[in-house]
Hints:
The protein is α/β, with parallel strands linked by helices. The chain is built from 15 helices and 10 strands. The chain has helices at 53-60, 81-84, 102-112, 117-130, 146-158, 176-191, 203-209, 227-231, 246-260, 274-287, 300-305, 313-319, 329-332, 339-353, 381-396; strands at 9-19, 25-33, 36-37, 42-46, 68-73, 87-90, 164-168, 195-200, 212-217, 220-226. The strands form 2 sheets. A 6-stranded mixed sheet has the order 6-7-8-4-9-10, sandwiched between helices. Strands 1, 2, 3 and 5 form a 4-stranded antiparallel sheet that branches. Bound molecules: adenosine-5'-triphosphate (ATP) and magnesium ion. Adenosine-5'-triphosphate binds at residues 18, 27, 29, 47, 49-55, 92. Adenosine-5'-triphosphate is lined by residues 18, 27, 29, 47, 49-55, 92.
Amino acid sequence: MKPTEMPVVQTAGLTKVFKDFWRRDRVIAVDSLNLEVRRGEVFGLLGPNGSGKSTTIKMLLGLLYPTRGRISVFGKPPTDVAVKARIGFLPEESFLYRFLNARETLDLYGRLFEQHTRQRRERIEKLLDMVGLTAEATRRIGEYSKGMARRIGLAQALINDPEFLILDEPTAGLDPIGIRQIKDVIRELSRKGKTILLSSHLLADVEDVCDRITILYGGRERSTGDITDLLSREDRTQFITDKLTPETVDTVRTLLHESAGKNILSVGAPSDRLETYFMQTIEKAEKTNARSSGARRSGALPDFLGATAPPNVIEHLVSEADRKPPPSTAELLEIRPRQEARSKSEAVIEHLTQPKPAPPERTEAQTPVVPEKQDASEADRSIIDALMQKKKDADDG
Length: 397
Ligand SMILES: Nc1ncnc2c1ncn2[C@@H]1O[C@H](COP(=O)(O)OP(=O)(O)OP(=O)(O)O)[C@@H](O)[C@H]1O
Ligand SMILES: [Mg+2]
């Protein structure tokens, strides 16, 4: 970060106290937090269960009001609509409509962001590929496993090409392949200059992707810093060499002792990480064409995101910035219902339920990317009715 560049997030004395029924202070969820997330970095918010990670994130999104303290996101209050338009958000809990399939779900969000049909369809197919769910895209989200729903949540968070991505436990419920893919996506997005804040308890994953971290405990910051600085052992030196014979190890041991008065503390063969071994095993199983109705290991992801291999989903999403600033996911998901977002979503659902005139005959070359059968406009009417009823109940309640 250049010294003059304003951090994406800055908080000062940020505090959230949840009150009980009698308005007495019950839980200090976040306590005097001074946080700084710099442009282009991957920032990890760590801490055990109940340490205040999600509460902090909700305050950054303007979904919860702080009890005390100040927050600025892109130099503005988080409730500012223009700020929200620049954020993508993957919440801790799945919020997806159970009755829509994956393609319809992404279509719904694309429509809410007022994306043109062609752009929307292109983004949807690329995002489905990126999260390895193209083959399962016509199944209802309600039938999905937790990890499959999480993958669609990530695709949803990226559909508006956000500058700042907030991921609350992005790898929760994912298999090792999904975790690896999400880490690859995070790294690739970071290379493209996006700022990412994520919360997690999976320390190995955080270590793989984060530049800086803050560790919370009881709502208070306990440690903050650059991850390599925090983890480096200044009092040790490590060599990794080609395989040595026991005789050579002895020679080196003697040399070190005689010339520098130092001892070798441990000698051994470095082992592969379990993640690497797991990925190799699955790759072998896939080569035998074993059956699976789950998420696929999308081999396309790394090439897809590589700088030189078009078409590249992230590149594509980055370069095709919408002319008009779209409403953000955060805004759409705001706890206090915003009239504008609500009416937009109703309009989209209405649109989905409208009987459509028969499409004009197409030549082979004009066949749309999404087969007609999977078009949301042809979704089972009873599903949409159930959805509308559910929404009405939620609104009434
Ligand atoms: N709406 C709420 N009402 C009352 N207490 C709450 C509310 N939301 C969170 N809390 C409390 O605030 C504290 C911090 O919760 P938070 O969800 O921020 O933790 P977390 O670090 O995200 O935990 P986890 O790792 O389990 O997701 C907890 O004690 C929790 O019970
Ligand atoms: Mg949480």
